[in-house]
From TrEMBL:
Belongs to the short-chain dehydrogenases/reductases (SDR) family. This is Gluconate 5-dehydrogenase. GO terms for molecular function: oxidoreductase activity, acting on the CH-OH group of donors, NAD or NADP as acceptor. The keyword Cytoplasm does not apply. InterPro entries: NAD(P)-bd_dom_sf, Sc_DH/Rdtase_CS, SDR_fam. Keywords: Oxidoreductase. It comes from the Bacteria. GO terms for biological process: carbohydrate metabolic process. Pfam families: adh_short_C2 (PF13561).
Amino acid sequence: MANLFDLTGKTAVAIGGNGVLGSAMAKGLAEHGAKVAIVGRNLEKAEEVVKEIEAAGGEAKAFSADVSSKDSLLQAANDIEQWSGGWDILLNAPGTNSPTPFFELDMDEYDKIMDINLKGIVLTCQIFAKKMIEQERKGSIINISSVSSTTPLSRVFTYSVSKAGLNSVTQFLAREFATQGIRVNAIIPGFFPAEQNRKILDQERIASIMSHTPMQRFGEAEELKGATVWLASEKASSFVTGALIRVDGGFGSMTI
C-alpha cells in the first residue's frame, strides 16, 4: 500500500510553495520522495522552505517568479528544467485576498487579485503543462481553490470570483489534457488561517465560520498533505481528473 504514494523519481514544481499552505503541501510531496522546486516571489521565504525540506532528508531548490508575469514564469521554467530535466507534478498554490467592500473596490485591486489567483494559474498551466506534454511525461496538476469558489463568501468578492474561475479552469484542462496523460484536479480547502485571510478573521467572523463547520475548528496546514500526495501519485489517483476535492471540515455539507 505504501508504494501507492511513493513519489521517488518524480519532480514537483510548487508555485506559491513559500506560503503557509503551499509550503506544507510541498513538504508533503518531498516527504514521499519527490524532488521539489519551491517557486515564489519572495526568494528568501522559498529558501527557508528548501532548508526545512533538506533538514528532513528531502531534495529541493528555490526559484523566484511572479505568477502574473509570463516572462518571469518562462525564466523559472527554464531554470527548473536545467536543474531537474523536467517535472511530473505541478502544484498551483499562489493566492492573495482583500476585504474591500464591493462598492469601494477599484479595478487596480480587482486586477491584482485576479492576476495572481486566476490569470497566474492559466499562465503556469500554459507553460509547465506544455513542457510536460512535449517531454511526454504523464503527470498531475493540482490547483488550490477555496470554499468560496462554490458558495461565495461575504467580504471577499474578488477572491470568490477568482476561485470560481479556477474551478472552471481545472475542469476544462482536465478534459483538455486527459489524452496526454496529465490529470488536473483542485483541492478546496476550508478555513486554514494563512496570510491572505488573517486580516478578515475578527471574532465575529470566526464565530460564523465555526457555526458553519461541523468539525468546529480551523484546519492545520499539514492536513492538506494527504490530499496533495494522493492527487500527485500516478498510482493512487490514476483515474481521478477534473475533481474538486474538499478538505474543509464539513463546511461544504453544512445546512441549517
